[in-house]
Amino acid sequence: MTRARLFVALTAVALAAAAHAQEWPQRPVRIVVPFAAGSSPDILARIVNDKLAARIGQPLIVENKPGAGGNSGTDAVSKAQPDGYTFLLSVNAPLVYNTILYKNLPYDPFKDLVPVSLAATTPNVCAVSNSMGVDSVKGWLAAMKKNPGKFNFASTGNGSISHLGVELIKAKTQSFAVHIPYASSGQAVTAIVQGDVQYACLPPVTVMPQAKAGRLKALAVTSAERSALLPELPTLRESGLPDIQAVPWFAYMAPKGTPNDVVQRMSREIAAALKDPETVKRLQTAYFDPVGSTPEGLSKFMDEELRRWKPVIDRAGLKPD
């Protein structure tokens, strides 16, 4: 009787979970992007939303909450109601690197959030202002060494991969430049074009349109291998900078306590949307490589990123400004 009752109870729980997953969602779902409109995660969210909304049967509302290099919006989601109607689309720094860089983060991404899906990756592009008068990585590095302290570089915030990548370049080349953080990659690229900063390593979705228009010079990608989306650009390794690999990635998360059946369904629907041919084409046009992992896959990936970057950050002595 005990086993029979246990079986009945477990069956009831399973059926209830399945019913909950089928019932969700009953109203619009909020996707919080902790960066400004026009930023890479914002663009990614809006592309994916078109197919994802159709799959879950409810509108998806992108809510931009920029501030503190992505920490503000990420913190807001960590404290949101875990009812399945708030998700986060964030990036490397707020989800991993800032746990190393900041002593007092207001949230712990490994404890206060649950992984949903690794959505996409993209190589950063190192670009320089036309005012520098260089057209290669060699020329760029020579100009920095020749003019210590003369140049500024832009990033998408303290601790972002666009910040850490350049700090590693500076450490490797023993050069110096002043860090100027911006709220989004679009603002950072505009700063290069206007001459407010001289260089940056930023997502191609914002860099390449300006490069193609001749308003700045794209020099190299920060990925380990040449990108199939940008085959014309060499890697930093090819350009004489070994051990430099700094690639942005984008992941969906949810507040801790969000029902697992909702998390699993959202993960499946995101993966399916990312495989849609029309979505793939739009993403690749914007220089995103779609992924679409399971929650377990994203959890493992974040653990690996933490192990990979902690010694790098510690060794370089990198700190938030």
What is the CATH-assigned architecture of the largest domain?
A: 3-Layer(aba) Sandwich
User: What Rg do the Cα atoms give?
Assistant: 21 Å
Tell me the total number of β-strands.
Answer: 11
**The level-1 CATH class of the largest domain:** Alpha Beta
Helix percentage range = 40-55%
Largest sheet: 6 strands, mixed
Number of contiguous helices: 12
The residue-averaged pLDDT reads 91
How many angstroms separate the termini?
64 Å
Which sequence of strands runs across the widest sheet?
Answer: 2-1-3-10-4-11
> Stretches where pLDDT falls below 50 for ≥5 residues?
12-19
- Total number of domains: 2
Global structural class: alpha/beta
Supply the CATH superfamily name of the largest domain: Bordetella uptake gene, domain 1
Q: Give the overall shape.
A: globular
What fraction strand?
15-25%
Give a brief description.
The protein has helices at 2-23, 40-56, 71-78, 92-101, 109-112, 137-146, 161-173, 185-194, 204-212, 260-275, 277-285, 295-316; strands at residues 29-33, 60-64, 86-91, 113-121, 125-129, 152-155, 178-181, 199-202, 216-221, 249-255, 289-290. With 321 residues, it is an alpha/beta fold.
SSE blueprint:
Layout: H1 2-23, E1 29-33, H2 40-56, E2 60-64, H3 71-78, E3 86-91, H4 92-101, H5 109-112, E4 113-121, E5 125-129, H6 137-146, E6 152-155, H7 161-173, E7 178-181, H8 185-194, E8 199-202, H9 204-212, E9 216-221, E10 249-255, H10 260-275, H11 277-285, E11 289-290, H12 295-316
Parallel strand pairs: 1-2, 1-3, 6-7
Antiparallel strand pairs: 3-10, 4-10, 4-11, 5-8, 5-9
